[in-house]
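[job 4471] stage=fold_predict status=RUNNING
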Amino acid sequence: MVRKYLVGVVQLDTQNDKGKNLERICAYIDEAADRGAKLVALPEVMNLIGEKNVGEGGEAEPIPGYTTQILAKKARERRVYLHCGSMKEAIPGEARAYNTTVMLDDKGEIIAKYRKLHTFDVTLADGTVCNESARVRPGSEIVTVDTELGRLGFSICYDIRFPELFRLLAAAGARLVFTPANFTLPTGKDHWEPILRARAIENACYVVAPAQIGKKPNFTAFGNSMVVDPWGSVVARAKDEPGVAIAEIDLDYQDKVRAQLPAFQNRRADVYDLRVKQ
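[job 4471] inference complete, writing structure tokens
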């Protein structure tokens, strides 16, 4: 296992031309690789945001498909592990799509796929109904994958508000958890960083949080892509614009934190338990 390596966190202002969005993404992957990143992570809905795609590549896609083929080629060319943020995965015979993360290894092979578990379904105080599950079919699996960079765990955006998911990922051995997002400005300014730091501290894990920034059709995205270490310190933060932030992942340091604060060993499994349903 590689004990130290660099991760590149890509912050994007994704719009409604999938082809152009992917051109920009590939340029940012090149930049991250040129700066020494072994792992590159992209935000939620990284390839398309808008009512209709005005460029090539269509809208919801099969996986593998148009987007993953382009990204797999780039991962293979630059010899990087690539966390593909998330994209709309087409579901045959259904109007809804999955919100899906794809993980590629440095040979461009798909090694994991995670579908967002939690959909944002709420009626606001003014009566406005937000029913994400009408558009997005929730996934049904908690996902980790073993790599030479350590065991990786996956979440997407709203998932970060469910600490039990992160505890289960950490209990399954995840050393690093991805949290790609498209957070709104009002909630982001108050909740984004505190929640990410809490998830890292609770589980003594790295949290890699690539995010959208900029004006979207229905809101302004908060940005503030970051990497949080197992102590809860923000060790990299993107500027207030699209770009790449670089951080070091140090698994030896993580082991020291876990030895210093042995929360997993001190859990009262005789009184309470948390387990994945089979």
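[job 4471] summary: The longest helix spans residues 185-203.
[job 4471] exit 0
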